[in-house]
Amino acid sequence: MIKQLKKNMEPQELDYEALRLESIRYVQKLCENVWTDYNPHDPGITILEQIVFALTDLGYKTGFDIEIFLTQADGNIDYGREALYTREQIMRQFPVTVHDYERFFEKQLGCERVHFHIESPGIYSVHLWPAESSKESNDSLAEKFSTLWSNWRCLGEKICNITIKEGKAEPIRHQYKALFETRESVSQDLPKGTPCNFLDFMPIVEQFPSIYRYGKSADELKKYLEPIEHIFMIFLQAMQDFANTFSVYAQKTSYEHYNRILNQMLAMYGVEFPEKLFLMLRESDENNNEQAIYRSMLRAKVRYLRHLPELHLHRCGIWWKPRIETMLGITLSGKESPIHMHALDGIFLENGFGKIYIVWSIETPLTNSPQKRNGIERFIRDELPAHLVPIFYWVTSEMSEEFYRCAERTDTAKKWLDEHEDYVSEALWL
């Protein structure tokens, strides 16, 4: 009954007296002649008023703006601590189509026009028209383009030729005028809050109608109110500590509690962390006890949350590998990881279109069993764009390092891959 009543009420009507009177009207309607005494001394009315008071006070306490809950004692909101991002950060767009590329590089290079010509699927030749006022050399402009391209290209795409054009370019009207603004240069007016002492409230029994505060029955009434007041205190304490409790640096009362908070933060952005795979990869590591394994997982989640906007650009060539390494926990902050995933975009190799070649060593605690290797393969397949197929090479550590050195040149990389075909995983992850 109370739930239905609250649903039908407007927010401005959610005050104690209005809700109490409306509740009594519902009782009269439902009970008719069975319940006839609606005076304050009736036990049923007393219980009803307790519920009404709890609803109205809870409604008041939860009616604050979310900024107030997130505000630190100094009046500021630490967005990084709460893993909160601006709309510009989380919705940051990056080039995908030919028109996107042209718009993006025109803006970044300050060119009069940039034209991408499709030679074959995923392979382009590029023509650049420098601005008339530009005094930059052709070599410098081509180098800037190459650097930007290596950072922003999509997986499975490459440039075969760059041409610097002279003379006035024919203007092209682009369809997406608002794409690829330089977000970093835009000053953002982020919301701020006001510190609020949620625990500064009068005990419930003191706020109750005066008729209940006197006489012998008052002590009995307090016994009924104390559980409600206790729950209120717990709730208000949580609100008081909201900014510290629900953050990437939350107080670790237990690993399960902290892990649940991080999972809730990830769920806000539609991310499911590969927790089972993470724990499976480390379960037989003799150097790790159970607590150390959980700490490692929590560090990986925090690192992922802190860099989530960039790591979401996983189709972008420069970010998909760090995304996988972070979520598998093989990227150590401030340390050199003993475990490496080497990868090469197949589009740079002959007959490698649509493939990503991934080389791992089997001589690490994370890859020393078929079950672990199969889990890694499934995870990477799920994290790659659907049009690309991963080809996994499981080799010795020495072979892995040899591939890393060979991958600097396409001819030596192709030769290494051909010579080690016997080490390719039997699974074909289509």
Q: What form results from the Cα inertia axes? A: elongated
Described by strand count, sense and barrel closure, the largest sheet is: 3 strands, mixed
Low-confidence stretches: 182-186
The share of residues in extended strands comes to 5-15%
Rg, rounded, reads 31 Å
Approximate helicity band = 40-55%
In whole angstroms, how far apart are the ends? 55 Å
H-E order: HHHHHHEEHEHHHHHHHHEEHEHH
Number of helices: 18
Please list the strands of the largest sheet in the order they lie side by side. 1-2-3
DSSP E strands, number: 6
Domain count: 4
**Mean pLDDT, all residues:** 82
Task: Please identify the structural class as seen in this structure.
Answer: mainly alpha
Q: What would you say this structure looks like, in words?
A:
- The two termini are 55 Å apart.
- The model is unreliable at 182-186 (pLDDT under 50).
- Helix 11 (255-268) packs parallel to helix 13 (290-306).
- This protein has helices at residues 2-8, 16-31, 43-61, 66-70, 87-90, 98-109, 138-152, 204-207, 217-240, 242-245, 255-268, 275-282, 290-306, 308-311, 320-328, 370-383, 397-406, 410-419, and strands at 113-120, 123-129, 158-164, 341-345, 355-361, 389-395.
- By secondary structure, it is mainly alpha-helical.
- It folds into four domains: 2-63 and 197-243, no CATH class; 95-179; 248-337, no CATH class; 338-430, no CATH class.
- A three-stranded mixed β-sheet has the order 1-2-3, covered by helices on one side. Strands 4-5-6 form a three-stranded mixed β-sheet, with helices on both faces.
- The longest helix has 24 residues, at 217-240.
- The chain is built from 18 helices and six strands.
